[in-house]
Amino acid sequence: MTYTPPKLLTFEQFITEYGDNPRYELIDGELRDMEPTGPHEAVSGSIAGKIYAEIFRSNLNWLIPKNCLIKPLASEATALRPDVIVLDQAELKAEPLWQKEPIICNGRTIKLVAEVVSTNWQDDYARKVEEYAFLEIPEYWIVDFRGLGGKQFIGNPKQPTFTVCQLINGAYQQQQYRLQDTITSHLLANLQLKLDDIMPL
């Protein structure tokens, strides 16, 4: 039996073939199916709504685009598609692709990303922790509402977990929250949020 490695895509090929399809992202040339379900999208929408309400209340010059890709400048074949991304509007003028495509290249434009964990949880807990830290994104939220992550990431027994990664000296310090815990965001200090608030029905 022979092993056939997956066909690798360039960033440009990915944009041409899958750029408008929110189901896919590209990591090191490999196409990743994000496998969104109804509950996954409901949780993503709830998170975006909670963040946007706080942005509006605090009169911050930030926005949450409906669709957005991150193309790390150091990577030729990666296009990350966070479930929720918060952008600093003042930095958008320095983005080389933004006027033609919803693509962000500079980490300083990004205030926060949130990933809602699905069956490819390894990307959210490992690869993206490194990638987003390298981009110097101040906060990264990992929302594992089904408790899918490995035990080394969310503990044993596995349970719904909300992880806030705060960038300190170039690396993420992680704080985990379970159901009924009040979640603390250093970026959105007045945010009132519990994992219970965003769990799907």
TrEMBL record:
Annotated ranges, domain Putative restriction endonuclease: 13-194
Protein name: Uma2 family endonuclease
Source organism of this protein record: Brasilonema bromeliae SPC951
Residue ranges that the Swiss-Prot or TrEMBL entry lists as coiled coil: none
Pfam families: Uma2
GO MF term set: endonuclease activity
Gene3D superfamilies (UniProt xref): tt1808, chain A
SUPFAM superfamilies in alphabetical order: Restriction endonuclease-like
Entry keywords, A to Z: Endonuclease, Hydrolase, Nuclease
